[in-house]
Amino acid sequence: MSAAPAMAPALPAPRRIFPRHPISVPVDVIVLRSGIPDSLPGRCTDLSEAGVGAVVAGELSAGQHVALELRLPGIGVPVRARALVQYHEQLRCGLLFVGLSPQQREMIRYWAYLAVAPPAANDAKQEETPPPEMPVVVAGPNPERRTRGFRVRRGRFYLLLAFMLALFVLGWWQWQRAWQDLEPPASAAAAPEPGAPLRVPPQTMEEKILSKVDPVYPEAARLAGIQGLVVLDVVISADGTVEKLRPVAGPDPLVQSARDAVQGWKFEPYRFGTKAVEVETTIAVDFRLN
Hints:
By secondary structure, the chain is of the alpha+beta class. The protein has helices spanning 102-115, 119-128, 143-182, 202-206, 219-223, 252-263; strands at residues 21-22, 26-33, 36-47, 51-56, 65-70, 79-89, 92-98, 198-199, 209-211, 228-236, 242-249, 266-267, 271-272, 275-276, 279-287. It has three domains: 21-115, Thrombin, subunit H; 141-180; 199-287, TolA/TonB C-terminal domain. Helices cover 30% and strands 31% of the residues. β10 (228-236) and β11 (242-249) form a beta hairpin. The radius of gyration is 26 Å and the shape is globular. The termini are close together.
């Protein structure tokens, strides 16, 4: 019941209503490929209540529906939402939120309030600070004054050169670090926080499915022509059974059918070291009328 997304031209950019704010945090973009959810690592570059700009290590196409997850600095709860790909060029993409809840909007507004510093203090400080004096070389026969002026200019030149070199090294280091964040091992999983299940990529748990139940297409949704992708946040116990389910995105008439199906799936227990542990992952169920 799945189909790969068709290539489409870039969608026209909507008129910007909400201000964008720069941000640099990891983001997971979940897409469906041949019926299998695939998590693409990425990094946000800007954020607003309308959507995000990001660098994503994978191929996306304009018009494609995806799910994404990101954590905002200072906010304890992650933002998990559906999004529409507006464009994707050379790893850079724009993602437009679809059906963002009022609670999630408030989270973004609160983060923006914390992130944006009031400019009044900076403006006042700039007005109070007088501009630095430029070195003056006095024309005339006095060689001591000419030499002193030349030394001042040369010292400032070396200082500016050192500053530019430091900026270059810092930029290179941040670029290398960003690419390391974009390329984690596909099967790697970080140690869980105390009392929280281990977060495992969807493709890793896909390989551990022992048995699965196909969802039943609701007749009312079929007659109404409703189709789409249902994304579920799933907690799998140490014995491989589905313990908890939470809808993340998807058409409401299809969510319950997806929940009923995934509840009956059975997985090979996931081992962290030598011990079978409880894990959390994302499962996507695709409903297509064809």
